Amino acid sequence: MKNLEVADLLDKLGDLVEANGEDRFKVIAYHRAATSIRNMEKDIEEYWREGRLDEIQYVGEGIAKKIDEYLRTGKLRVLSELEAKVPAGVPGLMKVQGIGPRTAYKLSHDFGIASVEELKAALESGKLSEEFGPTVTTSVLEGIRKLQAYSRRMLLPDAEGLHERLSSFFEANGIRIAMAGSLRRGKSTVGDLDLLSLDKRAGELFRDYPEVDRVLESGTKRARVVLKRGVQVDLRVFEKAEYGAAMLYFTGSKDHNVALRNLAIDRGWKLNEYGLFEVKTGARLAGGSEKEVYKKLGLTYIPPELREDRGEIEAAAKDALPNLVKLDDLKGDLQMHSTWSDGREELSGMAKAAKERGYEYMAITDHSVSVRVANGLSEERFLRQWKDIDKLNDKLAPFRILKGVEVEIKSDGTPDFDKEFLDEFDVVGASLHQSFNQSPEKLTERVVRALSQPSIDFLCHPTNRLLGRREGNRLDLLKVIRTAKENGKMLEIDGEPQRLDLDDVWAKRAMEEGVTLVIDSDAHSTGQLDNLAYGVLDGRRSWLEAKNVANTRSLKQFLRFVS
Ligand code: DGT
Ligand code: CA
Ligand code: CA
Ligand code: ZN
Question: Residues lining ligand 1, judged by CB closer than 6 Å?
Answer without folding.
Answer: 181-182, 187, 190-192, 194, 249-250, 252-254, 257-258
